[in-house]
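queue> holo job accepted (magnesium ion)
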Amino acid sequence: MKTSIATVSISGNLRDKLEAIAAAGYDGIEIFEQDFIAHDGAPRDVGNMVRDFGLDITLFQPFRDFEGLPDPLRAKAFDRAERKFDLMQDLGTDLVLICSSCHPQALGGIDRAADDLRALGDRAKARGLRIGYEALAWGRHVNDHRDAWEIVRRADHDNVGLILDSFHTLARKIDPDTIRRIPGDKVFFVQLADAPAIEMDLLYWSRHFRNMPGEGDLKVTDFMRAVMATGYAGPISLEIFNDQFRGSSARTVAKDGYCSLMALIDDVRRQEPNSVENLVQMPPRIATKGVSFIEFAAQKEDAIALKSLLTSMGFAKVGAHHFKAVELWQQGQVRIVVNQETTGHAGTSWTVRGTSICDIGISVEDAKAVLTRATALGIEPFEQPLGPQELSIPAVRGLSGSVLHFMDNSLELDRVWELEFDAKTADHGAGLTQIDHIAQTMSYEDMLSWTLFYASLFDMKKLPMVDVFDPDGLVRSQVVQSQSGALKITLNGADTHRTLAGSFLAETFGASVQHVAFATNDIFATAQDLADRGFGALPMPANYYDDLAARFDIDPDMFAGLKAANILYDRDDHGAFFQLYSKPFANGMFFEIIQRCDDYQGFGGPNAPFRIAAQKRLLRTKGVPNL
Ligand code: MG
Ligand code: MG
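queue> job finished
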């Protein structure tokens, strides 16, 4: 089985596209006619260039408005096809996609279409070529793969087959299981695309909003399971029309596509045993057990300021690295590594971004298995030279220059703090128990990449995207969390640098973690303890509390406590939620302290606009630029 991607899916000129596609690891491309026409080079040279990149041309597309035409249009359509056949032979590909006709003069009738395809099949056969017929979801007479299959079946020609496209089937809500009754050898090609669930014109939706399998809401896995159950053994190809991708980095989009394709094939292999040959072998999505540590790169006075902030929050230094300027600060289960090294990943991060979180340690069942899966998905492993007595902890590069380490209970990794830091036991501090969630900020167009990264590597689910209103623009927020809820990450996509999130991105040159939320079991006690330690909470305005009193029925004593301690409050059907924020530090990072009561599921979204306004007020008075 071959992996493939349509050249239309990514940005750049043909050579840029081929470079990116080859680097990501695909076997072949669908060449989109426009890409070929825009390229300055003869068809034979294009074919050779593709093969020089180690790629096959799996398909030439599209050939439109062919079947069902009355003469003389019909004869002209056959002439057009012959010219495409010439081109295909020069390029060196044997399969063309014929999409169902949208021509205003096309006539309906399954036998008429079958007759046309059979006649064209004869012409293709004479040249050793094949034709594949695809039902466009908006085709004039044929817009359902079941009708396209009936036409191909009646054409009854060795050189005529069916092309299936997940978008066209799933967008029209056609049951993908109907594919199971088609013989696999009559399916010539399979195209995959996902899309977000938006009600709109099918053609517009398809041309602008398709995305990688797993990035949208269509049941692409069910579609692919049905395809594989037919015994299909041809290429699996991504055909993604997406405005954002057309303007994004070719390499990123090609890599994301490869990652999504590998994850999908792995899912299908597990759910539809014996259907997929051993194209991929990887461990299943890994269960995460929470955040093991976060690591700050910080130097000089920034490091001193960070440590004093940590001290005011009840953290204590519990260990120091034997050979490096790296300290472990801890409270409850929250480990914060402060790395003051001037070389290596932390040194580079500090130089580029200033004080920022340069590394996240994720607790997992099996750290080596995560690395194996990551590598199979095309995610780059991270390594740097080990010092004396240093453990080799599996790690990968995330997006935006981030690094993730994977910690498990295997004897060695568990002992890293003891072995490398001589760490002593952490005390209760101010009552912070663990990391509740990590909030990462990225430009809106990078959000899909981040979501895909987490959702394809780990056993995590996506919650519905929500809009957060910053006074100066919109920020879109997507939660990905482990099935157990132990690891929760909020991804915030900023469109403009005028938002708090956007300004953080601009100030830090793309650092990702903007805030970390710590859990406490008693927010009021923690707030008092922090105040005693000199912690400066983010001041919330009286108007916020007036509004709160109007929105919720809150016990008067508790309400007074909230207001006195600048604690924010929210409630959902499951329970109540309390939040306390630090003042912003280091280019717009901040800490959050939360208490979840009963089974509160959210992240205090309704409070976000007021919290953001309060942070901006503070930053403005301090004269921080861009806010
Ligand atoms: Mg298609
Ligand atoms: Mg938060």
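queue> The pocket of magnesium ion (ligand 1) is lined by residues 134, 165, 191, 239 (CB under 6 Å).
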